[in-house]
Amino acid sequence: MPKQVDHVGRRRLIAEAVCHLADERGLEGVTLRDVAARAQVSMGAVQRCFRTKEEMLVFALGHIGEQIMERVQARLVRSPAQSAGTALGHAVTEISLLREEHRAEARVWLAFVAQAAVSEVLAGTLKANYALLQEAFTGLVAEAGNDAAVGADAEADGAGHLDASREARILLALADGLTTHVLIGHLTPRDAYDVLHAHLAALLERSAGSARTSTTRRIRD
């Protein structure tokens, strides 16, 4: 009876090999032969899973994005938040990749970002990953604004007059920037956490302040 091959598992194994090699030598140094050796499979096995190097890199990038999203979800389940603002803090902290155990993942992620600047296919995958994160952040920012409105006894719809999508874009860009600054040693992880938490605190305070202003105007009217 022919041996059954777990193609999904093999593709993930190859994606992990790509990430390990990219961490060590950057994406330019990743070859199909080296990937096969690192994954301990034949060249033929790699080529049966992926027709080209670019296809392999696209899958590996999607694999990293899935891991980050799964970790965000696990963090939210493991540490149930008392508010949407706290959940937002947990999520942004996870995707910033500031902890020491995520340093290799940060290096690989930025290697893919750099390569995406000259690869439309990789850029498309990155944009899809960022779109998912922005959607999640937008929902959490909007919910945090509604929480602030309820606390201020304001109308929940459009609470705090925050542009949730805009604030989500700012958070995403800030998280990415902090990843880079820590990776090159410009900031320590503690410095980066301080910047991130200060921004989150200011965001929630703006939301609460706007909600209080909205309440005052409604009372006067």
Molecular structure report:
This protein is mostly helical. It has nine helices and no strands. Helix 7 crosses helix 9.
Summarize, please.
The protein is mostly helical. Helix content is 77%, strand content 0%.
Descriptive keywords:
mainly alpha; 9 helices
How do the helices and strands line up, and which of them pair or pack?
Layout: H1 7-25, H2 32-39, H3 43-49, H4 53-78, H5 84-95, H6 103-116, H7 120-151, H8 164-183, H9 189-220
Cα shape: elongated
Q: What is Rg?
A: 21 Å
Distance between the terminal alpha carbons, to the nearest Å? 80 Å
- Helix-residue proportion: over 70%
Strand-residue proportion: under 5%
Average of pLDDT: 85
Low-confidence spans: pLDDT under 50, at least 5 residues? none
Instruction: Please outline the major beta sheet.
Output: none
Order of helices and strands: HHHHHHHHH
Instruction: Find the count of extended strands (DSSP E, 2+ residues).
Output: 0
